[in-house]
Amino acid sequence: MARTGDPARAVTAPALSTLDFALDRSSPVPLYYQLAQQLESAIEHGVLAPGNLLGNEVDLSVRLGLSRPTVRQAIQSLVDKGLLVRRRGVGTQVVHSQVKRPLELSSLYDDLEAAGQGPTTRVVRNEGVPAQADVAAALGVAEGGEVTVLERLRLTHGQPVALLCNYLPAGLLDLDGARLESTGLYRMMRASGITLHSARQTVGARAATGEEAARLDEKEGAALLTMQRTAYDDTGRPVEYGTHVYRASRYAFDFQLLVRG
Amino acid sequence: MARTGDPARAVTAPALSTLDFALDRSSPVPLYYQLAQQLESAIEHGVLAPGNLLGNEVDLSVRLGLSRPTVRQAIQSLVDKGLLVRRRGVGTQVVHSQVKRPLELSSLYDDLEAAGQGPTTRVVRNEGVPAQADVAAALGVAEGGEVTVLERLRLTHGQPVALLCNYLPAGLLDLDGARLESTGLYRMMRASGITLHSARQTVGARAATGEEAARLDEKEGAALLTMQRTAYDDTGRPVEYGTHVYRASRYAFDFQLLVRG
DNA sequence: AAGTGGTCTAGACCACGAG
DNA sequence: TCGTGGTCTAGACCACTTT
Question: Do A155 and A119 contact (CB within 8 A), yes or no?
Answer without folding.
Answer: yes
